[in-house]
Amino acid sequence: PLQLTLALLKPDAVAHPLVREAVHAAILRHRFLIVRAKELRCGAEQSRRFYREHAGRFFYRRLVEFMASGPMWAYILAHENAVPLWRSVMGPTKVFRARHSHPDSIRGAYGLTDTRNTTHGSDSPASASREIAFFFPEFDKRRWYEQD
Ligand code: CMP
């Protein structure tokens, strides 16, 4: 069965045409189905809410400011095991680990820092539902499955 996940192309990736293209190519190469895609810009408040589970971490403020610093792309992606698959395509959060242990992943190839790490992906099916509702409030998962 198809699983859905939320992917974000963060401002560092959107700002760089080659990185943007490479992420898009990775989505297609791994045969994700692009269910919805839109360009958006997060305000500081929306970005604080999106990452509220990280409130209090040393990088929270930096993260929130970065996510509000420019346009992003949000995608709903479908695939068998889309959640873990997209996370493995992205590679590890930390840029050092990504560069050294997963050089072919998106973050390994294009991540700039632990914060400016090109992409986001939901970490569980429950997070995916929450995050999809956050960025695509009009999206009706049940209807989408039925139409399929
Ligand atoms: P993401 O997968 O979007 O989820 C939380 C984000 O917080 C993460 O990617 C990074 O952008 C950021 N982040 C996580 N850990 C660190 C860290 N140690 N230092 C700075 N930013 C971090």
From TrEMBL:
Cofactor(s) the protein requires to work: Mg(2+)
Bias-annotated ranges (Polar residues): 114-126
Keywords, sorted A to Z: ATP-binding, Kinase, Magnesium, Metal-binding, Nucleotide metabolism, Nucleotide-binding, Transferase
Positions of ATP binding: K10, F59, R87, T93, R107, N117
Catalyzed reaction equations: a 2'-deoxyribonucleoside 5'-diphosphate + ATP = a 2'-deoxyribonucleoside 5'-triphosphate + ADP
Nucleoside diphosphate kinase-like domain span: 2-143
Top-level taxon: Eukaryota
GO cellular component annotations of the record: mitochondrion
Enzyme kind, highest EC tier: transferase
A GO BP entry: UTP biosynthetic process
Residues annotated as the enzyme's active site: H120
Single Gene Ontology MF annotation: nucleoside diphosphate kinase activity
Region (Disordered): 107-126
EC annotation from Swiss-Prot or TrEMBL: 2.7.4.6
Family: Belongs to the NDK family.
UniProt protein name: Nucleoside diphosphate kinase
Organism per entry: Lonchura striata (white-rumped munia)
Residues of the full protein shown: 10 to 157 of 186
